[in-house]
């Protein structure tokens, strides 16, 4: 199989210079608030979260505890210092604990899953507030249910080496490891949502119906496989490998998809 991202072992990361967007609003108004019997602590709000501690600064909590999101109210995360044994490494399998935050992941990481419930298989992912917190990773995305922002690693869609249960999917001029939507089941010629770019299985993308042979979708878009530009064309006789990015992120210049050129 041809690979167009320069890796053979894991999800690819891109240079820091490639970062171009951030999560939420980094501006914060600090205030003093007391939690239970504790002494007053500095609390700030940003986007849909409350920060009693800083999740990207491991030394903001006492030894033996970590700053992690605890679900509080609808789609609101309260970042608090939680006692946790912290034995699980990045990308390790884990059991999410959205209500308590005790998931075993090391400081700076939280156990997230497709629906962020304790009934789902999870993975320890690096926390972030903006893409500047993600070292050399491309994007700071959100988990689907509890909206916890995490650092999403770039990936090669032809190799699909994201940690379970994540999938390698198209996002903002690149492919990145993210949680699949429940509707991501479409294969070649099956319907998808061209506005949100969801509805296709891993290693497929959503393209306009007129360039995907056999597409009879009422949405106007259908799934089609990804491919490597300037390589051996494995798309078949009716389509060819064509570009899918207007301004590809570094490392994704040779990523294409199988469709009729237009």
Q: Could you walk me through the main structural features you see in this protein, from its secondary elements to its overall organization?
A:
Helices cover 0% and strands 29% of the residues. The chain folds into two domains: 31-142, no CATH class; 155-262, no CATH class. The chain has 262 residues and is mostly beta strands. Residues 1-42 have low confidence and may be disordered. The two termini are 27 Å apart. A hairpin with a 6-residue loop joins strand 9 and strand 10 (149-152). The strands form five sheets. A five-stranded mixed beta sheet has the order 1-2-3-5-4, with no helix packed on it. Strands 13-14-16-15 form a four-stranded antiparallel beta sheet, with no helix packed on it.
Annotation keywords:
5-stranded mixed β-sheet; 4-stranded antiparallel β-sheet; 16 strands; 2 domains; mainly beta; 262 residues; single chain
Topology as H/E string?
Answer: EEEEEEEEEEEEEEEE
Question: Which class best fits the helix and strand makeup?
Answer: mainly beta
**Average pLDDT over all residues:** 80
- Let me know the number of strands: 16
**How many discrete structural domains?**
2
For the biggest sheet, the summary is: 5 strands, mixed
Instruction: Report how far apart the termini are.
Output: 27 Å
